[in-house]
């Protein structure tokens, strides 16, 4: 297609942008498939790095759940970027239109979710807390190597970093059958305790006898997360606006290029 300056810029930007995401999506998808097919080699590779903290990330259940997550994210990135890149390079109106429509649907879903959360603030708060409590009651287990999974690891990391315990407080863990079966004489998980470094307890007796001086067992993670978001709200808003603008730009460029292709083909006819 002999193109004018605007359509050439649109084609170049779409090609470069989607090529980058195509490569990233391929890498993420490839790593996910590798973990599903041969997680033992990945675990052996990580064990070559001398770090006590990495042991928590090399458990088979964690690797398996991480693999499926990477496959899902990688597949979405691969599919969308493939449509955008091939559509721009091949100047295909069909591919570009499909790419633009998918981005519009994703953007509408994002805006709708934000709008509903703002309009029904209390309901959103209740549903979010219920969901978080469900992840604890259904999936949270001990730190034992044979029982820990991705959900447990996520909660442990969150509680260690945010200095909190459970959704509302430590009593949320009493609803977890897996935790109750494996906790022994522990009252709270180790991640609820004060730590010198990640997963290294300040007081080794803390899980069995928690107090305000050695743990955060009365501080819920939901409020801690809300406090973190409010403290970093400017950054959160900037990131959200940035993501939205990138999506809008990609939509605009894809339909502009479609229009240029249609105009050029009409002139040839």
UniProtKB/TrEMBL annotation:
- One Pfam match, given by its short name, reads Tetraspanin
Keyword Plastid attached: no
Main location per the UniProt record? membrane
Q: Which Gene3D superfamilies match?
A: Tetraspanin
Its keywords, alphabetically, are: Membrane, Transmembrane, Transmembrane helix
Q: How does it sit in the membrane?
A: Multi-pass membrane protein
Q: Is Hydrolase set as a keyword in this record?
A: no
Task: Quote the subcellular location field of this record.
Answer: Membrane
Q: Which residues cross the membrane?
A: 12-37, 66-87, 99-120, 235-258
Signal sequence annotation: none
- Name one cellular component (GO) term: plasma membrane
List the InterPro entries hit by this protein, alphabetically: Tetraspanin/Peripherin, Tetraspanin_animals, Tetraspanin_CS, Tetraspanin_EC2_sf
The family annotation for this protein states: Belongs to the tetraspanin (TM4SF) family.
Q: Any idea what this protein is called? A: Tetraspanin
In its UniProt entry, the species of origin is given as: Aedes albopictus
């Amino acid at each position: 297609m002999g193109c004018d300056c605007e359509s050439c810029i649109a084609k170049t930007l779409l090609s470069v942008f989607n090529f980058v995401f195509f490569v990233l999506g391929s890498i993420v998808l490839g790593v996910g498939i590798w973990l599903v097919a041969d997680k033992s080699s990945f675990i052996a590779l990580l064990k070559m790095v001398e770090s006590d903290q990495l042991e928590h990330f090399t458990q088979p259940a964690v690797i398996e759940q991480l693999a499926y997550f990477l496959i899902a994210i990688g597949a979405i990135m691969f599919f969308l970027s493939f449509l955008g890149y091939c559509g721009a390079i091949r100047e295909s109106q069909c591919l570009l239109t499909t790419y633009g429509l998918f981005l519009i649907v994703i953007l509408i879903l994002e805006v709708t979710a934000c709008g509903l959360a703002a309009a029904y603030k209390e309901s959103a708060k209740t549903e979010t807390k219920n969901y978080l409590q469900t992840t604890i009651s259904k999936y949270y287990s001990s730190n034992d190597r044979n029982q820990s999974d991705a959900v447990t690891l996520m909660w442990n990391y969150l509680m260690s970093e945010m200095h909190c315990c459970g959704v509302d407080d430590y009593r949320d863990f009493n609803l977890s059958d897996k935790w109750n079966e494996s906790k022994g004489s522990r009252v709270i998980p180790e991640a609820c305790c004060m730590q010198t470094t990640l997963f290294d307890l300040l007081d080794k007796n803390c899980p069995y006898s928690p107090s305000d001086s050695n743990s955060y067992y009365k501080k819920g993670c939901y409020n801690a997360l809300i406090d973190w978001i409010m403290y970093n709200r400017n950054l959160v808003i900037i990131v959200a606006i940035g993501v939205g603008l990138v999506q809008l730009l990609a939509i605009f460029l894809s339909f502009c290029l479609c229009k240029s292709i249609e105009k050029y083909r009409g002139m040839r006819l």
